[in-house]
Design goal:
seven-stranded mixed beta sheet, 384 residues, 42% helix, 12 strands, three-stranded antiparallel beta sheet, disordered N terminus, alpha/beta
Length: 384
């Protein structure tokens, strides 16, 4: 009885990276050892092999590894020549890195609202954001939809808006690589797609890493040049301003092994999400993917009634169950971004979500008994 009690009270990880590490075991050790043996730590053979694997997985013609998901955004924006006088539409309900690279290049993020059911960029607000940009004398150049918490945005609707205004679409799939929209995988939908391999992402490495996906040959060539200090025919020639944005060989080696089990992990995440939704739909607003998309469930996020969230978080913490709140302070309320324009009509949904959402533990190794413990604790807390 005492042993059972100790297991029940054991703290639960929010994302169990260690469980995946145990599963991969010797495969990761051997992959890293090969890099340590050949000592090609920058742009080694594993980088090129991983890029080929990524392209095959996503269906994109080009997959370009880089140093982080933030660099992935920067590389594309630099390749498009985004700068002062340009406007780039970004959702408010996102991590601020989405707009960070826009501002860094001297362009203006136009902050738009999201849809209440998907948390993703709302096409209507996006259209109003384009009008806001033109009213302010800015040129709408790009849209950065964010596939939030693992669920794709409404890419067809956003692509139509982009086409009508002559804009590019840069899909921020940092949380959703591996998901599908209308039968197509992210990476092959937008003009360019950026993703992150930060350790907590559904496909994560053991440090920082990212990638850009595109079918545009010229864009891919320019991104590869910018990634390596703007080099031309060789590193002695700089044909454009660039950055150091390379993916480390050791990280590529780790990701090669992780990509092999990624489809199985996506299925396991989806199974866990279904169990959550079936058990919690009567006490909270649970996420839904609809019939057009699949999610990789980077987070499992529920909506609560006003005033419930703090009590739930405290009750779960007392039982050794972690939670997270994304994004308590949306983009338009961040000190560094609050002076940037907001789309006509405001961002009321982002404001509402910021006070209502909470995320529960989610990963591919969430065993049913552990998940049942979480579900039971949530139900008890909300009942009280």
């Amino acid at each position: 009885m005492n042993q059972h009690t100790r297991v029940e009270e054991r703290p639960i990880p929010f994302i169990d990276v260690a469980a995946q590490r145990r599963r991969l075991g010797r495969a990761i050790d051997d992959a890293v050892a090969r890099v340590l043996s050949h000592c090609q730590f920058v742009q080694g053979p594993e980088v090129h092999a991983f890029e080929a694997d990524l392209a095959a997985f996503s269906g994109a013609r080009h997959a370009i590894g880089c140093a982080s998901g933030t660099d992935a955004l920067l590389l594309v924006l630099m390749a498009w020549g985004i700068g002062p006088g340009d406007a780039v539409i970004c959702p408010s309900f996102t991590f601020h890195a989405t707009a960070e690279m826009v501002a860094l290049l001297g362009a203006t993020p136009i902050i738009a609202d999201v849809a209440a059911d998907t948390f993703n960029l709302d096409p209507g607000s996006c259209e109003r954001a384009a009008a806001t940009a033109m009213r302010l004398g800015l040129k709408p150049r790009a849209i950065i939809p964010v596939d939030l918490f693992g669920l794709p945005a409404d890419h067809d609707a956003l692509a139509a808006i982009a086409k009508a205004h002559g804009m590019f679409v840069l899909d921020d799939a940092a949380q959703a690589f591996g998901a599908t929209y209308r039968g197509r995988k992210l990476g092959a939908l937008a003009t360019a797609t950026a993703t992150s391999f930060f350790p907590a992402k559904p496909l994560g490495c053991y440090g920082d890493g990212g990638a850009v996906f595109t079918d545009d040959d010229a864009l891919a060539a320019k991104i590869k040049s910018i990634r390596l200090h703007g080099e031309g025919v060789d590193r002695s020639e700089a044909v454009r301003i660039g950055i150091t944005g390379r993916l480390d060989t050791i990280q590529a080696a780790v990701l090669i092994e992780k990509l092999k089990i990624f489809p199985d992990e996506i299925a396991a995440r989806d199974k866990a999400a279904v169990r959550y939704s079936e058990a919690l739909a009567d006490v909270a607003v649970v996420p839904r993917t609809g019939n057009e998309s699949t999610s990789v469930w980077a987070q499992y996020t529920i909506r609560l009634k006003p005033g419930q969230r703090d009590g739930l978080a405290a009750a779960l913490k007392a039982e050794g169950i972690p939670t997270a709140i994304y994004y308590k302070k949306p983009l338009h309320r961040q000190p560094a971004y609050r002076d940037f324009p907001i789309a006509d009509g405001g961002v009321p949904v982002s404001e509402q979500l910021a006070g209502e959402v909470i995320s529960l533990p989610m990963h591919a190794y969430l065993e049913p008994p552990v998940q049942d413990r979480i579900i039971g604790a949530v139900r008890r807390a909300l009942a009280n």
